[in-house]
Sequence to fold (74 residues):
Amino acid sequence: MKKDILAKSVNVKRKGKAVSFKSKMEQAADMIKDVQAYYQKTVLVVTDSWFGNNGLWAPLKQGADGKYHLLSRI
Fold:
């Protein structure tokens, strides 16, 4: 698996199954979406300036309809 990550493969196969790699921002957005889906409430995400950029906000706001609020750079 390490060789695949270093090769920056978009999709690789392990034991016949496709494995896709995601950036930290994509992983964080997926986790926040899972929290919102579980609780069915609006989520306030509080971040430092590193996460509070468009890299996290862009995947969250797509189809969000006001489900997420982002507070950063505090």
Remarks:
- The helical segments are 2-6, 24-39, 54-61.
